[in-house]
TrEMBL record, chains A, B:
Chain residues forming the annotated DNA-binding region: 31-50
Organism: Streptomyces luteosporeus
Listed SUPFAM superfamilies: Homeodomain-like (SSF46689), Tetracyclin repressor-like, C-terminal domain (SSF48498)
Record lineage: Bacteria, Bacillati, Actinomycetota, Actinomycetes, Kitasatosporales
Protein name, as recorded: ScbR family autoregulator-binding transcription factor
Keywords of this entry: DNA-binding, Transcription, Transcription regulation
Amino acid sequence: MPRQERAIQTRRIILETAAEMFDQLGYDATTIGGLIDRTRLTRGGLYFHFTSKEELARAVLDEAVTMEGLAPQTFKLQEWVDLALLLAHRLPREPLLSASIRLSVDVKARGMFGTRWPDWIAVGQDLLTAARERGELLVHVDPQETARMFVAAWTGIQLVTETLPDGDLSTEVSGFLRLTLPNIARPGVLAKLDTSPTRAAHLLAPEAGSPATGRP
Amino acid sequence: MPRQERAIQTRRIILETAAEMFDQLGYDATTIGGLIDRTRLTRGGLYFHFTSKEELARAVLDEAVTMEGLAPQTFKLQEWVDLALLLAHRLPREPLLSASIRLSVDVKARGMFGTRWPDWIAVGQDLLTAARERGELLVHVDPQETARMFVAAWTGIQLVTETLPDGDLSTEVSGFLRLTLPNIARPGVLAKLDTSPTRAAHLLAPEAGSPATGRP
């Protein structure tokens, strides 16, 4: 493997291992020493990429706002739904994403690094504003208020679901969308939105069969 | 002041100060030493009431499920709404309540003490089941699923709102109720529910003017 490629891979391993530790132990209890144990790197090998726990936390949070799997859809509202479902599908599989929520609800880490919630609210607000311009929303819907409420509710659903036996985040988020969309989407649009818990898996692997747009 | 009454008051001061520390510093960074500094009690005075940080955390969580201010209403659904609004009003004012959420999202404390979310879900489920028996709910509403989703969403709204400048929990929870109730309550009931952000303040001080039942 070329040296540069190996370096990129090592950086990734460090970042994901740090994310796992933040997620499992919390910010305070995560240490560079523990990270060296888990990655089996030398201190020098680690410090080549990251020189402090703070730098690791910032790098984890920098990767938290991600649109992977999102594709243009007939309705902007479907893209907003897709974002919620994609994250619900990915979070239990990607330590970087769950760690970013853990750091956001940890008082100490939050005080040091802030949260990525304002960025997520801005993303949702942009999509909802575009949806409104295309006439997809009921007239009373305020894009900013709705985006804020969704980011908040989504976060709480993640935090509570991970503590429940057999809790499945995709199912919960899908249920939440079904509960709220009738008071957001115009009826004609609502009938065409796909809020299925399995949609994200299809979006991330379109070759697996299901089309990327509309109902399967 | 009689000795017993003073002891009860001291216990309360310790508990609220510990709650403030859990909330502001997190579970790990809260210490008995720091608590002695803040309460200005002697170690013996403190140990008379609580012998460990674990015991304090358990006592905080024991007070987390509270119905204070809740009164019987014409509609069971109004009682459920009231519970959401009462907690939204009280939480920013009562360290015991915010500490219980902080402990629930702290990985270490959660591992040691669990969370009170299952208790809250059970309370909501009971109210929604009673509402369904009285014909207040739309036919598709599942009391357990809806209760679970609400506890989760409410928690997330609290966690995100406290980080936003000018975020007001009562306003946010009221907005969330207005977003979701149209897909939960039967139309005739919906029109009579009071979801105003100021309702909880009236419920907690009925002598201040507003009636406890129905719209003001």
